[in-house]
Every structure is written in C-alpha cells, then in structure tokens.
Amino acid sequence: MSNYVVTISREYGSGGRIIGKNLASRLGISFYDKEMLNLLAEESGFSKAIIEEWTEKKTSSFLYELYTATQEKPISDQIFLAKTKIVQDLAQKESCVIVGNCADYTLQDMDRCLRVFIYASLEERAYRAEKEYKIQARDVAGFIKQTDKKRGSYYSHYTMNKWGDRHNYDISVDSGLGIDVVTDMLVSLVHAMYERE
Amino acid sequence: MSNYVVTISREYGSGGRIIGKNLASRLGISFYDKEMLNLLAEESGFSKAIIEEWTEKKTSSFLYELYTATQEKPISDQIFLAKTKIVQDLAQKESCVIVGNCADYTLQDMDRCLRVFIYASLEERAYRAEKEYKIQARDVAGFIKQTDKKRGSYYSHYTMNKWGDRHNYDISVDSGLGIDVVTDMLVSLVHAMYERE
C-alpha cells in the first residue's frame, strides 16, 4: 500500500484547517475536515442535526448517562465510532489530509502517517477568529479557550491521551511562522518522507 | 541586523545536538553546544571544573542555600548569568545555532530567532544512548528520564516556564522522522524565514 495520510490537529483559530486544505491541494490528494466527515457519517444513518450536535462533544452529564443507560451505546460514542471507521476506510483507500476527529489516534499504528499539531498565540488566534471566521462573541479570547477546552476534553475522553501533548504528534508547529511557510515546510516534509521512494 | 539564531532544546538521546550541528554546517553558520558555552564561560573567570559541575544543575538543597546565604549570588546563578550573557552576545555578533542553556528563553524577544524542540520515543533514545553515546548505565531508560528531569527542573528554575511546553518553541519535532529528514526540513525552514530576503 503506497497511501499516506497527514492528520492535522489544531488549536481553534490557529489556521490549521487552511494549512491542511492548502497542503492537500499542493500534494494533489484529498482533504477531509469536520464538515466532510460529518457528511460521510450521514451515510451511517445518523441525521445531519444529530451528527452536528455530537461532533466534538462527549457524553458528560449524569442525567444523560442515566437516560442512555438503557440504550446500547451513547449516541456520541456511536457517532465517534462511525467517524473512526470512516477515517480508517479513507486511510486504506487513498492518500489524504484529515483534520480533527482524533485521526492521529485512530491512525497511530499506520506507518505512513504524519501526525501534525498546529497552534498559535492567543493574539493571533483572536485576530483570525474575528477577521476571518467572523466570530461575533463578546469575549473572543474566552470563546477560543472554551472551544479548545471542549476539543481537549473530547480528545482525552476518546483517546485517554492529552490533547496537544507533543508525544501524540510527529511535529507541532506555531502557525505564527506564517501559513505559507508552514504549508511549504509540510509539503517538503511529505515529499521527503513518502514521495521520494 | 541580519543575524538569525536557531535555538535547539532537546530531550536526552533525541539526537537534537547532532541535528543542530548538521544544521549549522549546512547553513554555514557557527554552532554552540554545552561544551562550547562552557569553554566561553571560562573567560568569565570560572574554572572548568566549577562550570561543569553547575551546568544544567540548579541550587536546590537547603543546606546549600544556607551556606550561600552569606554570598552575593549562588554560584549556579552566577554561571547561568554568565552563559546567558554569552548567548546574548553571540546572537548580536553572528548567525548561529545554539543548543541548550535555555537559549530559547534568553532570546525570546529576538525577532529572527527560530526556537526548536527535538524529542523522540524512549526506545529510540535508549538505543542512541547505548549505541552512539556509549552510556554504560545499568538502567538506561532510568538514566534518560533522570537526565530529562534535571533539564526540566533547571529550565523551570531559571525561566519559570515548563520545559518542552510547545508554547516556548516555534516548532517541536520527533527525530524519529529521521535525523536527516529533520535537518533538511529545518534548513528549508530557515531559508524560507531568514534567507529569502
């Protein structure tokens, strides 16, 4: 199998998604982000609304636990598992860039997988959130921290690892170096690792 | 000023020093590691033995604190400050790669400074420690962990930051990708950032 996968985990507002998108385009391979994975998950029979509700969200309330104790598996777990299966199938089928969804963890035993984490200073992320993502929150910094907290908590819940810990990734990079600089660097790295053979 | 500096922090046995040495050689700039900094610190009047004793070691024992309470500054602090001054002078004078000595912290306000952290799996580090560094410890993994603990503790003592925390670095990379692959990547990154202008 000559497929390879680049997984991108990212702090909110770091520009990790756009780096992943540009990287895939430069490498001429497919790109899957949260929206694309949600779309694919609909094929498993879940409604769009349910998937969106439970993406990057884990079961946490006691009442919810109580309510679902009679069910086979919590909906959040079912959706996570469906998406994990999608990530595994994509990795089997084609070279691609996958953003989010704990793909680094799902594909941890895949040899030809480069696991990337993108972060940035809070200032840069707040700027990007306001100017590019058009976030209207009163407290943008608070919104960013809250979003990362949810991502971290979701990641820990399903992987038992700490989100952002360097040991889960091959490379962690501050997008403050420049979105294009980081993309160029990753293109060269992928060429060196998987496309010289 | 068109100087730039690459600082390399590294887990013990990760090959960070050799990556730094190769990087400097490829970029045609100077290379300063612990030994070179020690040598330069001798010019401040400290003996070689004293410098070696207090490098990557911080004042921690209560008795020592008591003993040195009458002195102007603990020897460890004096040596750290002397080496910090050397790092600042080098950064002013020339482009270079500097390994260790909290140089990332010392030069945190320098615009043209790329701060790199190199790590690796414990297995790879143990292999390198035995085969390349010829470490004879009975418990190599224990020796590695102990050495990193000392580095982390020294770093935290002088910088108040957490050693290895991604926010202290522009890029953190697992040398398991390959010493040459990582070196090539850093050469390209430096070219993109500082040598295209």
Q: What are the key terms here?
A:
globular, alpha/beta, homodimer, 9 helices, 197 residues
Mean pLDDT of chain A: 89
SSE topology string of chain A: EHEHHHHEHEHHEH
Instruction: Report the radius of gyration of chain A as a whole number of Å.
Output: 17 Å
Query: Cα distance, first to last residue of chain A?
Result: 13 Å
Helix content of chain A: 40-55%
Kindly state the number of beta strands of chain A. 5
Structural class of chain A: alpha/beta
The largest sheet of chain A is: 5 strands, parallel
The number of helical segments of chain A is 9
Most extensive interface: pair and counts? A-B, 21 and 21 residues
Name the poorly predicted regions of chain A: none
- Molecular shape of chain A: globular
Strand content of chain A: 5-15%
